[in-house]
Amino acid sequence: MKIAILPGDGIGPEIMNEAVRVLNALGENFEMEWADVGGVGYANHGHPLPESTLKLAQEADAVLFGAVGDFKYDTLERALRPEQAILGLRKNLKLFANLRPAILYPELAGASTLKPEIVSGLNLLIVRELTGDIYFGQPRGRRAAPDGAFKGAVEGFDTMRYSEPEIRRIAHVGFQTAMKRGKKLTSVDKANVLETSQLWRETVIDVAKEYPEVKLDHMYVDNAAMQLVRAPKDLDVVLTGNIFGDILSDAAAMLTGSIGMLASASLDESGKGLYEPSHGSAPDIAGKGIANPLAQILSAAMMLRYSFNMNEQADRIESAIKKVLASGLRTGDIYEPGCQRVGTKEMGDAVVAAL
Ligand code: NAD
Question: Confidence class of residue 106 from pLDDT cuts 50, 70 and 90?
Fold first, then answer.
């Protein structure tokens, strides 16, 4: 199992060190190779996604990614900005499925803006299609409005599109993910209004025949937004398209109140994936040794579960994290009075010890 380790910028290297220590502590035979990406890729090789880094990512069985970005690169032309590395990796590795869990450990229920009884113990996962939909659909652009009350005025337009095979492909990821969890899948669309969504719903219903054990239901996206804040614990795996998933996954992330705890995965058709924390490079705290490494460590656990089918080892990491939180250790971002405040390395030490 070869893992490309791409720490990136800001707090990336600090939190990646801890994730790698945790992986090493499992005593498995991982081959890990490190490479520059993002701002540090540009600084050392002239490009945020250097060729050698892309080659490594292509050869590896999985990519563990830190975070990229630094304000000092904000004046660069768009193609050279650190964030382009993520888009380049997604495109070149054909990553079309984004998995974002939102988990709220009962010990951290106070961090959410919602009442503890609504969110404590929350554990949902959003499966979002990443490469299609209105974000990429052609035609798009500006033109003189061809009709309507504002005929002739400048208008902007985009095209929402999904082909049946595209929907089928992401639906399989949704059902397979549900099989690894609670065997419950909620497909989110806007089939009461959109043609794209009607095809989405029909296709998901058809794919469901191959997964008789999974309980499937459907929700309109506006209702899904309501249910996310009303009764988020009723949701398990949520399957949706690119734009709806973009919005809902950020709302779900905020239910937990702690960005330093959220992992994510982007998968290709064969299950190879890129695993990264949902947060950015946090330049405001980089180099201070205070960043929360748990999202990065949980990303490594997701990698074991989804790319390597090592469920037992993934469970071990997640249980170790639960134990550490139960013992009262907190980095600054999740600190509450009465707990013990620790830095990045101490948090990593504690997870390794709990393992
Ligand atoms: P951010 O997620 O980096 O930080 C937002 C806030 O959360 C900051 O106050 C930060 O200190 C805090 N934070 C984030 N992760 C934390 C952690 N692990 N532990 C403790 N606190 C944490 O978002 P931002 O400030 O908007 O962006 C900073 C840079 O990151 C920008 O250059 C942006 O483009 C980039 N970015 C990269 C990614 C990515 O690599 N996938 C994602 C988002 C933003």
Answer: confident
Q: What is the C-alpha separation between 119 and 103, in angstroms, rounded?
A: 9
Candidate from 281, 284, 294, 342 with most ligand 1 atoms within 8 A of CB, to mutate = 281
Question: Residue 3's pLDDT band (boundaries 50, 70, 90)?
Answer: very high
Q: Tell whether pTM > 0.85.
A: yes
Half-sphere exposure (Cβ direction) of 145: Cα atoms closer than 13 Å: 10
Q: How many CA atoms lie within 13 A of 314 on its CB side?
A: 16
**Hey, how many other C-beta atoms are within 10 angstroms of the C-beta on 16?**
25
User: Read out DSSP for 209-246?
Assistant: TT-TTSEEEEEEHHHHHHHHHH-GGG--EEEE-HHHHH
Ligand 1 mean position, distance from CA 283 (Å): 7
User: Which CA distances in Å does 322 have to 74, 191, 295, 309?
Assistant: 38, 39, 13, 21
Is residue 258's pLDDT more than 90?
no
pLDDT digits (tens, 9 = 90+) for 19-64: 999 999 999 999 999 999 999 999 999 999 999 999 999 999 999 9
Cα of 280 from ligand 1 centre, angstroms: 3
Once rounded to an integer, what is the mean pLDDT over residues 188-216? 98
Residues with catalytic annotation?
Answer: 135, 190, 222, 246, 250
Radius of gyration of the chain measured on its C-alpha atoms: 21
φ/ψ of residue 188, rounded to 5 = -110, 130
What digits encode the pLDDT tens for the residues 124-158? 999 999 999 999 999 999 999 999 999 999 999 99
Residues with beta carbon inside 6 Å of ligand 1?
11, 67-70, 83, 86, 259-260, 276, 279-285, 291-292, 295, 333
Phi, psi (deg, nearest 5) at residue 45: -130, 0
CB-count burial class (<10 Å; 0-12, 13-18, 19+) for 44: exposed
